Amino acid sequence: MRMLDIIQNKKHGMELSAEEIDFFVQGYTKGEIPDYQASALLMAIWFKGMSEAETANLTKSMVNSGDTLDLSGIKGVKVDKHSTGGVGDKVSLVVIPLVAALGIKVAKMSGRGLGHTGGTIDKLGSIPGFNTSITMDQFISNVNSHGMAIVGQTANLVPADKKLYALRDVTATVDSIPLIASSIMSKKIASGSDAIVLDVKVGSGAFMKTIEDARTLARAMVGIGNNLGRRTIAILSNMDEPLGSEIGNANEVREAILTLKGEAEKDLINVACAIAAQMAVAGGAFTDVSEAEKAVMELITSGKAVDFLAELVEIQGGDKRVIYDPELLPKAGFVIPVVSEKEGYVHSIMAEEIGTAAMLLGAGRETKEDEVDHSAGITLKKKVGDRVEKGDVLCILMTNRENHDAALSKAHEAYVVTEVPPDKVPYILDVIG
């Protein structure tokens, strides 16, 4: 088998066989296929696309390029979730205790953030002592005993994805649906869960800017999951403004706690409820989504799931006191209000701009080597549709950096104030699978 022939076949729009795809993935991962040939194939895929079978085979081969998690030691159905990335997205912190409280096993593997979107592992890092580097034996034991656990991604999980993503980033082939879908799903399949709920973000603060592109990606990922024996459901949720009112690591932990008490913004509560309900159905606790949503909302109203979050923190070495007293979480030295220069209504909050502002404050990373400041972040005081008077505080910046001019400018740019209120957009845009 020759790499040149594989490139030729895809260039002419032919469907690649499982053997051809595996030859490419394994050869490139081992360094036997040079970057220039891999780049040529990626560009051919960008132009010609891939069938559902090809995308599933690509995902399977990527999974087999490294370690996979064997969760057979966990009794019952294991459920995982994944978000395609958004600003203020602390949904994992909310749904893990909610779903565990319903008796479903949640075996969650998460990553760190890069750029304007935050990572769940970074958020949990703001809780003193919380350990996301527990051994696999401890991970499995925690899920069996407590119904939940969360761990950071292992170094050798899907190495093919790490190499291919780096190459896609410098060859303008990132925005290919089959390549995006296989990248996301290879990590979820390798993580070992039986069922996967995908939160596909749509809008200005998401990778997928339009509902049409988001549906295409969601269908591709659901197809991969089902092809590879995982029950997979995708929810399309609105990311035309940040989710909730808090952006930043400690900030988002505080808001997750409030959400579990039913005291957060409606958009966050509704999105978390929808995802938790789908996870509960995928895990077999309910057959009807509306019944599952009702049970989730009862947990939120009662506040019982807060105790499950405290339990998650405790079993992974963290100080559970912060869950009952969020004032113990890190606080920044500088607090800077962002003031409206006009009156009207908040027409939009450009989530990507707000996310970039938070990164400039220290809440995120521009490069993988950057250290995250867990106390840095932004609190939104006005959301889309709110009435604003001149001089009103739109949001508050928190940082330990003395120079925060760039972040202040970005936050100002993010708010669009107009004379008339905007049309309402639903929080959940579609469910696929």
UniProtKB/TrEMBL annotation:
InterPro entries in UniProt: Glycosyl_Trfase_fam3, Glycosyl_Trfase_fam3_N_dom, Glycosyl_Trfase_fam3_N_dom_sf, Nuc_phospho_transferase, PYNP-like_C_sf, PYNP_C, Pyrmidine_PPas_bac/euk, Thymidine/pyrmidine_PPase
Superkingdom of the organism of origin: Bacteria
Transmembrane segments: none
Keyword terms: Glycosyltransferase, Transferase
Ranges for domain Pyrimidine nucleoside phosphorylase C-terminal: 345-418
SMART domains documented for this protein: PYNP_C
GO cellular component entries: cytosol
Substrates-to-products reaction catalysed: uridine + phosphate = alpha-D-ribose 1-phosphate + uracil; thymidine + phosphate = 2-deoxy-alpha-D-ribose 1-phosphate + thymine; 2'-deoxyuridine + phosphate = 2-deoxy-alpha-D-ribose 1-phosphate + uracil
Enzyme Commission no: 2.4.2.2
Glycoprotein as UniProt keyword: no
Pfam families hit by this protein: Glycos_trans_3N, Glycos_transf_3, PYNP_C
GO molecular function: 1,4-alpha-oligoglucan phosphorylase activity; deoxyuridine phosphorylase activity; thymidine phosphorylase activity; uridine phosphorylase activity
Protein family membership: Belongs to the thymidine/pyrimidine-nucleoside phosphorylase family.
Function text: Catalyzes phosphorolysis of the pyrimidine nucleosides uridine, thymidine and 2'-deoxyuridine with the formation of the corresponding pyrimidine base and ribose-1-phosphate.
Subunit annotation: Homodimer.
This protein's name: Pyrimidine-nucleoside phosphorylase
Organism, as annotated: Youngiibacter fragilis 232.1
